[in-house]
Amino acid sequence: MHACDQPTQEAIYPFDARGVAKRFRHAAIFGALDALLAGETMRFCNDHDPLPLLAQLQARFGDALQIKYVQREAGAIVIDFSRVA
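RE: above sequence
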């Protein structure tokens, strides 16, 4: 079971990239992260490990964004992106 399909008790905003057209994904992800306030988390779900995206996020947000894998299996990637500042 994909971790995004399980409910959470925390205030985490889900973002399921599997349902977003590939040509719009990065723009949608950046927009969602820009909308987060300090202390908020977006739970990102995807079918592959988005290593190029993670490099872009590090370059754009630096230490203002924490990146934590929740699930890292073939076909089931879940990452929590938390805004720090």
